[in-house]
Design goal:
Blueprint: H1 2-5, H2 8-36, H3 62-97, H4 100-115, H5 118-129, H6 133-159, H7 163-170, H8 175-211, H9 223-230, H10 242-267, E1 292-303, E2 307-318, E3 322-326, H11 333-340, E4 349-351, E5 354-357, E6 360-361, H12 367-377, E7 378-381, H13 385-388, H14 395-406, H15 411-424, H16 430-433, H17 443-454, E8 461-465, H18 473-490, E9 493-498, H19 501-507, E10 510-515, E11 518-524, H20 534-541, H21 582-586, E12 592-595, E13 598-600
Parallel strand pairs: 3-9, 3-10, 7-8, 8-9
Antiparallel strand pairs: 1-2, 1-4, 1-5, 5-6, 10-11, 11-13, 12-13
Helix pairs in contact: 2-3, 2-10, 3-4, 3-6, 3-8, 4-6, 5-6, 6-8, 7-8, 8-9, 8-10, 9-10, 14-15, 14-17, 15-17, 17-18
Length: 606
């Protein structure tokens, strides 16, 4: 609603529609006698003080008749929209109810109707059902139905693979109940939003039908009928068409603007309400770490509406070091990686006390300098290699593009380098793989190809965001081995993000545990058994091993992590912690060192 109220186009559309509805309510009562008064002395007159926009063939005032016709015009348009919307939704939903073969017949029929010109379809229906208001309404309703049927079918098909639909089918819920309870409520919004535009289309269509003599018949009249009656005199007294033509244009414009504004507001509904505010962070006082490829202090990511998924995160990654960032889904791990890589989606804003990559302060660079440094020194490996690789391009071309853009290599040099990088990550027959498309590779090969893509330059920092999540255990081990070899060979540092603490403990040198946007513990990987924070201990305890008593249930962490916008001033883990005290609920513990290589944020940690 706030977006609509601040948009001039939506305000104009709403004002026009409100004015038309008001006229429809009061005009027949106020101006009916003037509109129906016959005056033989004023037949087909132009504009005059007595008749501001002229008169018709019986001397009746055209302005008054136009105002009175508002009720019938809008009423017929509403009925046509209702018919088109209801019949279209039913038609579009039929394929989900009928057997597959019958559903295909319905879809084919809808496709044919969509391809047929809407006005011709309306005219054909009006001729078949009979000329007049009823035929015109049915005709326009039939013309609107295919568009709603196509939209309904498309939206229904998009939900067909949803897990809750599959669960309902597994439970043998009847098809009609799946449609009415699980599908239609979830696609109602776009259907409702399209109704405003359909109302405008119906109004214009009905006016066109009446103008052509196929709609409202005398003695009744709508705006189209008034245009039809006045058109014969337009060359003698042009003002006779001004009132009905202006009414059609303004009403159609109002509904179209309002419908377009609804659609745009819905498309931007994922944006949080409010204005983005850059996080205020005090500059770091301590000196930067000398040999660090990444040195971040108090990194904060904020979205409008008080949503802060990353809160004062400090990380250091040195050469040949792999730092693991572990935590539950939603703890802020991926958003931390996006902030380091400068790819936080709008309207999120990033602030930090210090952000240094390869000894260079990123905040002190221009946009062009920052892009150049990040392109050459940072490699990012994402969780899903399928989304990282363009399915329409060969693997070799996508790898070569990195070298040609950032290093200025020729196509031949880039191709040779691509083959060499694929071989480095243990892909067999790399010369053949560069000629293949991503879908021809297995999941593990695609992930290694993405790692090879990151190695096409000379990265000093590798950020791997859950690169083993979608892979089986055997392939996970291969990817982890490749990443370790790459770090050792290139002397790069790596930030490895995962929710699997077992994989992190095997691969990484240090581990940072993240919860509700903050680092709650940092310690060496080989000292994981000495973890002091209750959350870290719970993560370790929930990991079964060969000594786990299989007769007992697996250990779990009760409750759930707070949402980024619901984090309180105290310890975010207090509600789930068995050791929590009143102090934990009221005051947030800072990350403090308990040993040279160990830091923890907990009031109860020793």
């Amino acid at each position: 609603m706030r977006r609509l109220l601040t948009n001039p186009a939506s305000l104009l559309g709403a004002a026009l529609v409100a004015a038309m509805v008001l006229l429809a309510l009061i005009a027949p009562t106020v101006w009916e006698s003037t509109a129906s008064r016959i005056d033989p002395s004023q037949i087909n007159q132009g504009a005059s003080p007595a008749h501001l926009l002229g008169t018709d063939a019986l001397g009746r005032d055209l302005l008054a008749r136009t105002l009175v016709a508002t009720r019938l015009t809008l009423g017929l348009a509403f009925l046509a929209t209702l018919i088109g919307t209801a019949s279209g939704i039913i038609l579009g939903a039929l394929p989900a109810l009928l057997p597959r073969r019958a559903g295909r017949v319905v879809v084919a029929a809808v496709d044919i109707l969509v391809a047929f010109p809407a006005l011709l379809l309306a005219m054909f229906t009006a001729v078949v059902t009979g000329l007049g208001a009823r035929g015109a309404v049915l005709g326009i309703g039939v013309a609107l139905a295919p568009t709603f049927a196509r939209l309904t079918h498309t939206l229904t098909a998009s939900l067909a693979g949803a897990d809750y639909i599959a669960a309902a089918r597994m439970l043998q819920v009847p098809r009609h109940r799946i449609l009415t309870r699980h599908i239609l409520p979830n696609i109602a919004e776009p259907l409702i939003l399209n109704t405003a535009q359909a109302m405008g289309s119906a109004l214009l269509g009905l006016s066109a039908m009446s103008f052509l003599g196929m709609g409202v018949q005398a003695p009744s009249y709508d705006w189209g009928r008034l245009l039809n009656e006045a058109f014969g005199h337009v060359y003698v007294t042009p003002t006779v068409v001004i009132a009905p033509a202006t009414a059609v244009a303004l009403a159609g414009l109002g509904f179209m603007l309002l419908g377009d504004s609804f659609a745009k507001a819905a498309a931007g509904a994922s944006d949080r309400v409010g204005t983005p505010v850059t996080p205020v962070v005090t500059p770091a006082e301590e000196a930067p770490v000398a040999d660090a490829v990444l040195d971040v202090r108090d990194l904060t990511v904020a979205f409008p509406g008080g949503v802060t998924p990353v809160r004062q995160v400090s990380l250091t990654v040195c050469e040949k070091e792999i730092v693991g960032l572990v935590g539950e889904s939603g703890s802020g791990k991926s958003m931390t990686a996006a902030a380091i890589g400068q790819i936080v989606p709008y309207p999120g804003l990033v602030g930090s006390a210090r952000m240094r990559l390869c000894g260079t302060d990123l905040d002190a660079l221009t946009d062009a300098q920052r892009r150049k440094l990040l392109g050459a020194s940072l490699a990012m490996v994402f969780q899903d290699p399928t989304s990282s690789l363009n399915p329409a391009l060969r693997v070799g071309g996508q790898l070569a593009e990195v070298a040609t853009l950032h290093d200025g290599a020729t196509r031949t040099e880039a191709r040779v380098r691509a083959v060499e990088r694929l071989a480095r990550v243990h892909i067999k027959e790399p010369a053949q793989v560069v000629r293949q498309y991503p879908h021809e590779l297995s999941g593990g090969m695609r992930q290694r190809a993405v790692i090879a893509m990151g190695m096409m330059g000379t990265p000093r920092l590798i950020i791997a965001d859950e690169p083993t999540t979608a892979l089986d255990v055997t392939v996970q081990r291969e990817v982890v081995k490749v990443l370790r070899e790459v770090v050792d060979d290139t002397r790069a540092g790596a930030l490895f993000i995962s929710h699997d603490i077992a994989v992190v403990s095997e691969l990484c040198d240090r581990i940072a545990v993240m919860y509700a946007g903050r680092i709650v513990e940092e310690l060496p990987a080989d000292a994981l058994h000495t973890a002091q924070h209750p959350y870290t201990q719970a993560l370790i305890g929930s990991l079964p091993d060969m000594d786990t008593d299989r007769s007992r249930p697996l250990a779990t962490i009760p409750g759930r992590q707070p949402a980024p916008g619901a984090v309180t001033e105290g310890c975010a883990f207090a509600d789930r912690c068995a050791l929590a005290t009143d102090r934990c609920a009221s005051a947030r513990p800072e990350l403090r060192a308990t040993a040279d290589t160990h830091a923890v944020a907990c009031w109860e940690a020793s």
